[in-house]
Fold this sequence. Notes:
Arc Repressor Mutant, subunit A, 44% helix
Amino acid sequence: MISAFLRACAEHSGARAAFAQDYCSRRLQNCRPIHRHGNVVSMNWDDLRIVAAVRDAGSYAGASRRLRIDETTVGRRLQRVERALGAKLFEAVDGMRRPTAQCDMVLSHVQTIAGHVAEIEKIGGSGAGVAGRFRIASTNMVAEEFLAPRAAALLAAHPGLGLQLLTSSENVKFSRWQADFAVRLRKPDKGDFTISKLGEFRLYLFEPAAEIGAEGVICAYPDELGPIPETLVLKARGFSERARLVTDNLRVIRTLIATHQAAGILPDYISAELLADRRLRATLLPRRRDVWLLVQNHLKRDVAARVVIDWLRGCFAELAKA
């Protein structure tokens, strides 16, 4: 159809034919598939977010749940980015999607863009005082016991601030796509963020005052949580092999211990009633559980972010003193 149009234009003056040729050439150029070595590579911001979600979740299914879109959509849009770049972004290794070197290069630039987007989103906040909306990742218990009881006072003092608490039974993966701050119970090995210690929890081994014997219930934590102090102590005392109830839910363990028929390890901040129960024997353990604050680097000089950081430190001030 376009070629027929050009032939028709050729019958007219040279100037008109040249104009038509130039116009159609530019239109065709816009319709061509994107090639990595072309002058311009057009990218869709939502597609790039999918790349980051797959990297963080390690699978299409995990990215699908995180972004609340269909798994087939994740795969299709990821393929679209790979075709546009002419590069493979993930390799399948042991059932997981591992990022390639090209993927890491892409995401290093994408994270910079995400920082700018976050700053743009803060524009238009309250004209008085600090303003901004921040995402804080933590375990369920940390959010319930430390953050939630103190959140109302922070928000009342700063009407321009907003918080989103992202909770999980395990340590929430920390990337700029998911959170601005994270409270972790294990120090990360490395990462593009600032790490500082908030404090530490004391740990107690609770056992019934009356011996429970070999048939007693031992509560343990899943191996997926890694070499946490609780698991190491249970192994050292020979309890791991006898564990007949495994859970990552501290409230479940506390409830079982309160029946006086089970033994387990809990942090001090949820153990006040158990410590006062004379039918239980509580042993303070030499090992403690550290609490760490992770801050995205681009927020270190942000005035509103500093308010949230100071508030987080205040939430754990008693732990720091201990």
